[in-house]
Structures are given as structure tokens and as C-alpha cells.
């Protein structure tokens, strides 16, 4: 119950940072859904005029159902604000994302944004990143990735579908590999290592957006802006 309220508090607060005319990056996941619901309310009640760039098929469907007008990075290669969730946030604003297997497009949209708003319930805050790192890879390079992860002391598991036999297929038509490194001492270098493996589209470690990031941490009674 508290987690739901925490996510709602964070998501709603972020939606109120959006202003008329904004092109808004719409992240993926349950927390940013609250942001989208609040934006939908503001569009209907205040006549808020925005366009959203969705980071996943799921977010695009949800946005359409909520009456949020959509556009693309083709039309707006630079956007005003991106609002997205995260699986873990450390005290330096290094993030782990990708539980929803959407981190590749999430990274594109976060990079295109002037301001990056991360909405999390406070349970996602940690001193040191240690969550599993999702990595999107073309199947052709799967074994190469697994070997590299092993050499880096990690354990790589292909993300299997729940209601589909075989691997999860991402919105980009590729597969997602969950790489467990335990505690991550140097997120920047691990991010570079993983992203530079030939065949990898992107990993879920985000360390390059710190300067433009605001973290909204929700709790049962409100929010904390970090
Ligand atoms: O997949 C993602 O990167 C999502 O943003 C995810 O990390 C956050 O999802 P949640 O808001 O449902 O926890």
C-alpha cells in the first residue's frame, strides 16, 4: 500500500513540472504511469498542451488510451523534459534501469532531453548499485556478451517470456540479458564496458545524465527532491 502511494506521490509531482508547449519523454514502468495519468488529467482539466515521446510500445498504448498526444524523436530530436522510472538510484545519481526491457529507447529519450526527471519510490534509493543490469543484445552476439560478463565476474541469464516460450523480444526485436554483478564498484566503467561490446544495443546502467537529473523519491506521505 505504501509503495503504491510512494509511486503515486512521485509520479504526480513530476507531472506538475511539465508546462504548456513541452515535448515530454514518457518513460516505461508503473511509477511513470502515475505521471501519465496526472498529465492526462491536466490535459483534460487545464487544457495542457504537450506532446509525448514514448519509450516503449506499452507506454505508447497507455498514452493513447490516456489521451496524451504523441510525437517522435524524428520530429523532435531535442525535447524539453524526460520523465522515467528506475530500478536503483545511488547517491551520485547513477541509475540501473531496464526491468521493463525498455532501456535502449529510454536512453535515447533521456539523452535528447534538457531535463531528466527520475521518479522512484524511496525503496529504490541505495548507497551502492547492486541490482541486476539488463543488457539488450542482438542474438548473433549473445555468446560473446555472456563470455564478457563472465570475465567481468558477472552471471548472465537470458530473460525468458512468462506467457511466451523462449526469450523476451524487445520493442527493437532483440533480446534482453540480465547480468548480475552484485555490488558495482565503478558504474561508469562497467556501463562503458557493456555498451561497447559488439552487438550490444545498450545496458541498463545510466551514469551520463547526472548534471540534468532531478530524482523525485516518493514516500507514503509525500516526496523528497534529491
Ligand atoms: O524498465 C525501466 O527502466 C523502468 O523505468 C523501471 O526500471 C521502473 O519501473 P517501475 O517504475 O515499475 O519500478
Strand order of the largest sheet: 2-1-3-6-12-13
Could you report the average pLDDT, rounded to the nearest whole number? Answer: 98
Which percent range describes the beta-strand content? 25-35%
Helical stretch count? 6
Shape: globular
N/C terminus separation: 23 Å
User: Tally of extended strands?
Assistant: 13
Structural class: alpha/beta
| Gyration radius, rounded | 17 Å
What small molecules are bound in this structure?
Answer: D-4-phosphoerythronic acid
Largest sheet: 6 strands, mixed
Low-confidence residue ranges:
none
The helix/strand series, from N terminus to C terminus, equals HEHEHEEEHEEHEEHEEEE
What level of helicity do the residues show?
25-40%
Catalytic activity: aldehydo-D-ribose 5-phosphate = D-ribulose 5-phosphate
Function: Catalyzes the reversible conversion of ribose-5-phosphate to ribulose 5-phosphate.
Subunit structure: Homodimer.
Active site: 106 (proton acceptor)
Amino acid at each position: 500500500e505504501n509503495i503504491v502511494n510512494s509511486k503515486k506521490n512521485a509520479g504526480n509531482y513530476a507531472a506538475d513540472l511539465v508546462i504548456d508547449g513541452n515535448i515530454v519523454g514518457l518513460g516505461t514502468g508503473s511509477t511513470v504511469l502515475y505521471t501519465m495519468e496526472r498529465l492526462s488529467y491536466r490535459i483534460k482539466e487545464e487544457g495542457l498542451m504537450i506532446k509525448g515521446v514514448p519509450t516503449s510500445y506499452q507506454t505508447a498504448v497507455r498514452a493513447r488510451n490516456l489521451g496524451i498526444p504523441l510525437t517522435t524523436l524524428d520530429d523532435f530530436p531535442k525535447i524539453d523534459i524526460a520523465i522515467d522510472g528506475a530500478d536503483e538510484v545511488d547517491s551520485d545519481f547513477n541509475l540501473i534501469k531496464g526491468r521493463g526491457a525498455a532501456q535502449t529507447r529510454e536512453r535515447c529519450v533521456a539523452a535528447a532531453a534538457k531535463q531528466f526527471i527520475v521518479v522512484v519510490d524511496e525503496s529504490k534509493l541505495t548507497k551502492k548499485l547492486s541490482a541486476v543490469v539488463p543488457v539488450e543484445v542482438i542474438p548473433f552476439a549473445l555468446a560473446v556478451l555472456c563470455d564478457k560478463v563472465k570475465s567481468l565476474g558477472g552471471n548472465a541469464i537470458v530473460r525468458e517470456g512468462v506467457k511466451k516460450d523462449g526469450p523476451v523480444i524487445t520493442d527493437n526485436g532483440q533480446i534482453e540479458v540480465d547480468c548480475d554483478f552484485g555490488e558495482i564498484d565503478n558504474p561508469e566503467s562497467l556501463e562503458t564496458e557493456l555498451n561497447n561490446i559488439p552487438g550490444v544495443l545498450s545496458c541498463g546502467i545510466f551514469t551520463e545524465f547526472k548534471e540534468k537529473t532531478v530524482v523525485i523519491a516518493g514516500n507514503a506521505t509525500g516526496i523528497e527532491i534529491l
